[in-house]
Structures are given as structure tokens and as C-alpha cells.
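Suppose a colleague, Dr. K., hands you the sequence of a protein chain of 172 amino acids and asks what its three-dimensional shape might be. Before reaching for any lab equipment, you can write down a predicted structure in C-alpha cell form. Begin with the sequence itself:
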Amino acid sequence: MKKIAIIGSGGSGKSTLARELGKILKIEVYHLDALFWKPGWVGTSREEQKMVQSDLVENESWIFDGNYGGTMDIRLNKADTIIFLDIPRTICAYRVFKRRIQYRKKTRPDMGEGCEERLDLEFLKWVWKYPRTKKPAIVKKLELLPREKEIITLTSLKEVDHFLNKIKVILN
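The predicted structure, expressed as C-alpha cells, is then:
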């Protein structure tokens, strides 16, 4: 486990898992939101996203957290491990609300500088509809990856905790 891509719905815990895993494995973590949102919520072009990721995936080890469907193949093709957080949408929606309150008028550590936490109806709808609109394509994409890649699907907070504890035990 040296090149890890973490994907899943908004609010599924991608950034938190990436940070924890990065500490445990001593691997650099790249939060796609931090890379691709500039101050004032100005997004970068897809071309820039592709260029940045194409360079970073050539590093010896990394952890990427984020979906960015238009560039996901860059990460998935170079990853040796893909973690899909398939967390229930009720938990994801709750977490989105929670972080809105927690980071009110602040920038989350996994977000681009100058992008204060916000919550809009469009994003909330995206999170709520994710299991129906996004998940099927991701599952299909994961099924088509070469067999030598380790694909880990975690479906609950308990499974995420168990996974992290298992990694800690293996390394000790």
C-alpha cells in the first residue's frame, strides 16, 4: 500500500481517512479540494487538474482523497490500492451539516485556502443522490480495474475504524 486513492460521497470521511492513513503509513496526502479550489471558490481547469495529478501520481508513494470524476482514471490507474467509502447517505448528509457548523467562516484543512466552508442545496442534493447517480458508475469502474489492484470497500464507520486498527497492528 504505497499509492492509495480514496473515493466516495461528500461527507463519507475521505479526508479524515486520508489524514489518518497518511500519519500511520507516513505517506504524503493530497486533498484534491485543496489542490483545485483557489481563494473565493474559483475552480481550476480540467487541463490543470490533469497536469497536476499526472505529475503527482509518478511519485513513489501518495494518498489522494477526492472524486473529481473527470480525472479519476489518472489516480485509479496508478494506484495500487483504492478505498471506496460507501457510507450511508444519511451519515454523509449529517457530516456535511456538521462540518458546515464546525468550520463556519473558516477553511477546512483539506480545502483550498480562502474557501470558507459553505453549504448549498446543489451539493446537498449531490450527496443525497450519490448512491443512485454516482455509485453505480464507480462500482462498474472498480470492477473493470486489473485484478492486481487492491480494492477495499468500507460501508460503515465501524469498518473504517477496524481497517485503520488493522493497518496499525500490521505495522507494529
